[in-house]
Amino acid sequence: MVKEIKGTGVALITPFHNYGTIDLTSLRKIIDRVIANNVDFIVALGTTSEAATLSKDEKQAVTEFILETVDNRLPVVLGVGGNNTQVIIDNIKSNNLDGIAAILSVTPYYNKPQQKGLYYHFKNIAAASPVPLILYNVPGRTSVNLEAETTLRLAHDFDNIIGIKEASGNLQQIMEILKDKPKDFTVYSGDDALTLPILLLGAEGVISVVANAFPNEFAYMVNNAMKGSKKKARAIHYSLLDIINTLFEDGNPSGIKAALDIMKLCGNNLRLPLVKINKGTYNKLQTLIESYETPAIID
User: Fold this and answer.
1) Which residue has better confidence, 1 or 9?
2) What is the pLDDT, as a whole number, of residue 81?
3) What was the pLDDT predicted at 40?
4) Which residue(s) pair with 8 in the sheet?
5) Coil, helix or strand for 207?
6) H/E stretch holding 145
7) Whole-model pTM?
8) Which of 196, 202, 179 has its CA nearest to residue 230?
9) In this structure, which topology does domain 7-229 adopt according to CATH?
């Protein structure tokens, strides 16, 4: 089923039991809850999923479970990234992508390619992919920035490169992309705290971490921002801002795992090298969540 990939996307976590195995019961509960609360698409095996710590078999099992649970209710975007172009292409060719609406692929990390290398990296992935490709720029994690000029070149040169998750935090760069992008190329906010201003600049979606915990509120903010209802969108933005900031104090997905534990949606378990957030941060987050009141403006 082909559906439009715009609006609020959720970068799903991967819940673990306290002995380290994947907690599919909690994953199903989280998926059903976000779908019931008005999100628009699901992102599997993104950064927030701790995909770097999942084995190949676990990635396949999680992907199949997500597709089965979503059951065509929403589009599913699959994270397939790395810093070896050929390995990514091989993974795309060997994976069963039935039911996958698009691939989300992060800029190569560690080896720090030039812009020319980034262009040819994504050119070759786009050529190999049977489904559309969404670029993912997050220089804070990868140590390389996909510059606006390179993003726009890729967007104009390849019809199946349909968007970018922009998590650079650089509003000037994001505006340059929005100003000159093709009509059908979608810019997604990759920063929860900056989603409202990025949407008001012309972006058409977000791939969100906080929406794991507050899907209805965040989706309401996104929908109203995209409709031009700035007052309603601002009310939700500011109501969630302290929670969002606290989620990232000790890193992601440690913060959102703690939030979901506080909300009794899954255990507060991570795989090394990630560890739980500090006790003080946990207590602060717990106070914010337990005292949170959805603004009355939501109808």
Assistant:
1) 9
2) 96
3) 98
4) 206
5) strand
6) none
7) 0.96
8) 196
9) TIM Barrel (3.20.20)
